[in-house]
Specification:
The structure holds two protein chains of two kinds. Chain A is mainly α. Chain A has 27 helices and two strands. Classes of the chains: A mainly alpha, B mainly alpha.
């Protein structure tokens, strides 16, 4: 967040450009770190190896990773800076460890060095975790390196006790995860109340999806890549679909092979462990959405190291395969160029996403959304705008047909049909459907945003005012999610929009309710302060400032509260 | 990787410059904050300063907050006022600059201490620990509280004193250098003490530094080194004995200070055990919400086990002192003991037996230098391990950024008058002062109802506020909110304790000042005057109020143009305190206006006598001369 703040401070006008350029810069820095890290890993795991060869192989790993089209949806997706920085610090920690550990393996380490490395690791782990929570995996990855690469070697001796301890410690988190799967604790289960799948379904589906990730890394088919992959089919049980069972079997087999070959080809076990550990949070038990490409940003390095390791072995066997590497890099670069071109324009991107994933409701919705934005472009001719609007409606409708509970599509169809004179009846129908969906659907972030659009349109003057029905929808949501401040705030907004002079006591009741729910809720306080200032009710203003300040224990809104006194 | 040599010359200095810039940036918004609490009693008097050298001198030497008058600090206020006028922003910026200068001195001092023990100590550690001291959020309430410039200046000269000492102790072979450094030592010592008296603690600190930490190291001549070491130890013991004897001899004076407090000497000693631990926590990893200028809600320890924390706190301090003394004979132990004792010794005046208020954050300004010195000493030892320095520096830099962010949020609060009051009211709900401030804030924007609510909360927690004082305060709130006070409030005024209806002069003064500054169109000032006259002038019993109370009421009647009543109040005043200069001058004024020749002569005679005894300030003498010329 600090880096975003710096970006915002540096460039107001070109904020987006600076954001993306910063991400590209971080991507290159991570690439350099990967080069240094993989050089050390290759030296240790493929030894004896000529140091120039190791450098070239490390360069190949870094180049493959930097140029891989799969990483576009991390690098050019501004908010994924979090994943980038987390990867950067994790990699910095891993490199520090490997560099010193290789030396200790040869001639032991002195206490100063050991303490210094420990301190660096603590610092990098802290920075990585505060960039994005999965930075905490640094510790586990270190154990994997120790287990697969150094194997307890210290001053040219093998410390058996160290080998054993590390071996158990690498397995321990897997055991903990298994226990959490069998007896899921609250922190695992709570998020599933917002999901249309269960814990079991997620874990089973991830068995397939992780193979899908491996597939993208080995065969970067840009025509299947997208920002949204909500068209993936869920694994309901081990046999449905049957590929779930195959995936599980394949994982077990691969890990067994890697384990058996751990001494002959340690890079295989290390690369696979790196990939799986890197995925253990986002592709494990937590009820996050099923697929995102950016989740491979760090774990993908493990697979690419294996690829380069295999390539090295192949080249030793058949030296004439050497130019193949260059060819692969050229192909990957071309695919990267194609993907970056796709990502350089919003409409082009959404259009490609629909093309690549025609069965994805979200891809269709976002294409519709971009077309709707195009329709509001005053520089277009009237007919072009009407055409864009109809196209938008078409894609919203496809999204709706793919998922009839997709609130974002339903609300967009309602908003469009409300504005077309002959479609008022259809709009009424959409509203009816929205009313039904909110009673049963597990609301996700996109659904929440859709409800806000509905409130703005239906009560803000752009659509026919359906005051009672919108308030009914919000009441339903409040009853279903009584502790969610978001719906409380929407209800507050709806009450204010729906009545010219809202009852101040009724509005103050919302603030009290917000205080009862707890947590920080700057939106409602800011809105109330604004309302009170318009009617010159100083007492009300102060009461809200006090409530706002009292709830802001972490002082996130001090600046905003402070500014109130300067206006 | 990570092999940048942090010992290379420019890096520490570049870092020091960057940290200074960071501190300035963090504190910059603080200039928009208001005057606070004791700023009024110490600095508002400068509003009446005439643009003459003599009057300026009068104001420099007329401060009564400490036994020595703090003229060095007052001089800076007077110069600032004379050149730039009354601007809190400028005063706060000046304090910020002084804080940065102090930070630089702290870095210098740390470096000298570390290099005496180990000439190869990396300068960057001294810089980092000084930076941590500069950025500690607890110092916000010293830096942005204008009147605490006294504390800042005392620390400035105190730190200079300690730095000069290092040069003095290595000058025995060079007479000129020795004379020069001795002169500087004396100068800085007196400047420190005349900035604020408690800077006197630098004397035991310097002795402890020599006897525990420096131990004669760095002195070229071994004979001198041994003698210095020996004398410093003897002097430490002698100073301790002298302080104890003085304490015993002046015990009555110490006890008499508690007459105005709702706690006893033992209560204060018990409580300070807990307070010192609290300070320690607030320095190293503060609870920002608890920070502020008002801590009158701090629970007093009434006995060793009431509350139980008192016992544990005192026991823990006892253990700390025992450990410090037990290990002080070893070189590292001595340095550590010195740093710990610095904290305690620097608190020995304000946080021990004197009848001061229980808790103020600014009291940690100089003591906290010892805590960060402890950090520097331990880090220096730790970084003697090969290769550790760079990682320690990296971690420390992240720590500084986090602390800086916390201090910045604290400064944000201190940059707005309303926000600081809201912050106090929320986080110190049992504080009399916090609730009072909030009441004033709300009334001043017209929100009378919640203002009265906060006033009533203040009443619950203000044990010293009488019913009459509370009523006076509420009248001021009505006036501030530009609303009519209910007649019942006037009728009840002064009826609850006929012998002493109003005790807090500040409340009465506040009401009159509000009436003077606000329009308060619906407020019947004459009715208030009549009501007070019925209370005080009906039987002319002077024991019903203090001399100062009569003085402010006389001023009020003067504003109303009722000289006879004003004259009567000054008569009561002089009955209580016949040599009250201001009272006599007022008496002279009213008597002159009323044509009371005998009274005029009597007043002139008394004032002449006081003048000959040197008890009149230049301004008072000038006022008197106007009357004499008139005659």
């Amino acid at each position: 967040m600090l880096s975003f703040a710096v970006n915002a401070w540096l460039g107001n006008e070109h904020f987006l450009l600076i954001l993306k350029l910063t991400n590209v810069f971080i991507h290159i820095v991570v690439g350099w770190l990967l080069y240094f890290f993989s050089k050390e890993i290759i030296r240790c795991s493929l030894s004896p190896i000529d140091s120039r060869v190791a450098e070239w192989l490390a360069f190949a790993v870094a180049a493959l990773w930097v140029l891989h089209p799969l990483n576009v949806s991390t690098t050019l997706y501004a908010v994924q800076r979090m994943a980038q920085l987390s990867a950067l610090f994790v990699l910095a920690g891993l490199y520090t460890f490997v560099r010193y550990r290789a030396r200790w393996a040869r001639r032991g380490g002195d206490p100063g060095e050991i303490v210094a490395v420990a301190l660096w690791l603590v610092l990098f782990c802290y920075l990585a975790t505060y960039s994005k929570e999965n930075g905490i995996l640094l510790g586990w990855l270190l154990l994997a390196i120790e287990y697969c690469i150094f194997k307890g070697e210290w001053a040219n001796r093998t410390l058996v006790w160290l080998q054993r301890v590390v071996g158990h410690m690498v397995l321990l988190p897997f055991v903990v995860m298994l226990a959490c799967y069998l007896w899921p604790p609250e922190f695992v289960t709570w998020i599933y109340q917002h999901r249309e799948f269960t814990l079991e379904e997620r874990v089973l589906t991830q068995l397939r999806i992780t193979w899908g990730y491996v597939g993208w890394l080995l065969y970067p088919d840009v025509s299947s890549m997208s920002l949204h992959h909500d068209d993936v089919s869920l694994s309901r049980d081990l046999l449905s679909p049957i590929t779930t069972l195959y995936s599980l079997t394949a994982w077990v087999l691969v890990m067994l092979v890697a384990f058996v070959l751990r001494n002959r080809f340690p890079l295989l076990l290390f690369g696979m462990l790196f990939f799986l550990i890197g995925h253990s949070i986002e592709s494990g038990l937590l009820g996050l959405e099923m697929v995102y490409e950016h989740r491979n940003y760090l774990p993908g390095m493990g697979v690419l190291m294996i690829v380069v390791g295999v390539y090295y072995r192949l080249c030793r066997w058949r030296p004439d395969l050497l130019p193949l590497g260059l060819g692969v890099l050229l192909v990957v670069s071309s695919l990267l160029a194609v993907r970056v071109w796709e990502w350089s324009d919003n409409l082009r991107l959404s259009s490609r996403m629909v093309n690549n994933h025609p069965l994805s409701p979200r891809a269709n919705y976002f294409h519709g959304f971009n077309l709707q934005r195009l329709a509001s472009n005053a520089q277009l001719t009237e007919s072009a705008r009407i055409e864009a609007m109809y196209a938008a409606r078409y894609f919203y409708h496809v999204a709706y047909e793919l998922d009839s509970d997709d609130l974002a599509a339903l609300v967009s169809l309602y908003v469009i049909d409300e504005r077309v004179p002959g479609k008022r009846e259809e709009a009424e129908g959409w509203l009816n459907q929205i009313q039904q969906v909110v009673t049963k659907k597990k609301m996700q972030q996109s659904d929440k945003y859709a409800v806000q659009v509905l409130v703005d349109c239906a009560l803000g003057g752009a659509c026919t005012p359906h005051r009672d029905r919108v308030l009914q929808i919000l009441l339903e949501l409040r009853q279903r999610y009584p502790t969610e401040l978001y719906y409380l705030n929407l209800q507050y907004k709806a009450v204010r929009l729906s009545t010219a002079e809202a009852d101040s006591e009724a509005l103050a009741e919302f603030v009290l309710e917000s205080n009862r729910i707890g947590g920080t809720n700057p939106a409602i306080y800011a809105a109330e302060i604004d309302r009170c200032s318009k009617v010159a009710d100083v007492e009300c203003m102060y009461s809200n400032v006090i409530s706002w300040f009292a709830g802001d224990h972490r002082r996130r809104d001090v600046g905003a509260i402070n500014r109130l006194f300067y206006h | 990787m990570f092999t940048v040599s942090l010992e290379s010359r420019p890096i520490p200095w570049v870092l020091l410059a960057l940290v200074s810039a960071l501190v300035l940036w963090v504190y910059w918004p603080g200039q928009y904050g208001p005057w606070l609490f004791d700023d009024r009693s110490n600095l508002f008097i400068l509003d009446s300063m005439a643009p003459t050298f003599q009057d300026a001198l009068d104001h420099i030497f007329s401060n009564t907050s400490g036994p020595l008058g703090r003229p060095v600090s007052m001089a800076t206020f007077v110069i600032e006022r004379a050149v730039f006028g009354a601007d809190p922003a400028l005063a706060k910026l000046f304090n910020t600059a002084l804080h940065i200068a102090n930070g630089l001195l702290v870095a210098w001092l740390y470096l000298l201490v570390l290099r005496t023990g180990n000439p190869r100590s990396p300068a960057i550690l001294a810089v980092l620990c000084a930076a941590a001291w500069m950025l500690a959020p607890i110092h916000v309430s010293a830096v942005l509280y204008v009147v605490q410039r006294m504390t800042l200046l005392a620390a400035f000269f105190g730190l200079l004193f300690l730095i000069v000492y290092f040069y003095w102790r290595t000058s025995f072979h060079n007479t000129i250098r020795l004379l020069l450094s001795s002169g500087l030592l004396l100068l800085t010592f007196f400047l420190a003490v005349f900035a604020k008296e408690n800077a006197v603690v630098i004397l035991p600190i310097v002795l402890l530094m020599e006897s525990l930490c420096l131990r004669g190291q760095g002195v070229l001549n071994e004979h001198h080194a041994r003698r210095l070491f020996l004398y410093s130890r003897l002097s430490t013991v002698a100073l301790l004995l002298a302080a104890s004897v003085m304490l015993v001899l002046n015990w009555n004076w110490v006890e008499s200070g508690y007459a105005i407090r709702d706690f006893t000497v033992s209560d204060r000693i018990y409580t300070q055990g807990r307070v010192l631990w609290d300070y320690l926590g607030q320095i190293l990893w503060p609870d920002l919400n608890a920070l502020g200028i008002y801590h009158d809600d701090y629970r007093i320890s009434r006995a060793l086990f009431d509350p139980l924390d008192t016992f544990w706190a005192l026991l823990a301090w006892g253990l700390v002192i025992v450990c410090a003394l037990a290990f002080c004979l070893r070189p590292l132990g001595g340095a550590v003991a010195f740093a710990v004792l610095w904290f305690l010794v620097a608190h020995s005046i304000e946080s021990s037996i004197l009848a001061l208020e229980i808790y103020f954050e600014h009291r940690n300004y100089l003591p906290s230098v010892g805590l960060f010195l402890l950090m520097a000493i331990l880090l220096e030892r730790f970084t003697r391990l090969k290769a550790v320095l760079n990682s320690v520096v990296a971690i420390f830099l992240v720590y500084l950024l986090l602390v800086g962010a916390r201090t910045s949020s604290q400064v944000q609060i201190w940059s707005s008058g309303p926000l600081i009051r809201i912050n106090h009211a929320i986080n110190h709900p049992n504080s009399f002062r916090a609730n009072r401030d909030m009441a004033i804030q709300l009334a001043s924007v017209g929100a009378l109802e919640p203002a009265l609510e906060y006033s009533s909360r203040a009443r619950q927690h203000g044990k010293h506020e009488s019913e009459g004082d509370h009523e006076i305060f509420e009248l001021a709130l009505y006036c501030l909110a530009e609303q009519t006070a209910p007649p019942s409030l006037f009728a009840a005024l002064g009826t609850s304790n006929l012998q002493r209806p109003f005790t807090v002069v500040a409340n009465m003064h506040g009401l009159f000042k509000t009436l003077q500054q606000q329009e308060c169109t619906s407020f019947d000032r004459y009715a208030l005057g009549d009501r007070l006259a019925r209370i005080y002038l009906a039987d002319m019993d002077a024991t019903r109020a203090s001399a100062n109370m009569y003085s402010v009421i006389a001023g009020f009647e003067n504003e109303l143009g009722r000289m006879d009543k004003a004259f009567a109040y000054t008569q009561l005043l002089l009955e209580l305190s016949s040599e009250h200069v201001r009272g006599l001058l007022m008496y002279l004024h009213f008597a002159t206006v009323l044509g009371e020749t005998d009274s005029v002569n009597r007043a002139v005679e008394l004032l002449d006598k006081l003048q000959s005894e040197g008890k009149l300030s230049t301004a008072d003498a000038r006022t008197l001369s106007y009357y004499l010329e008139g005659e």
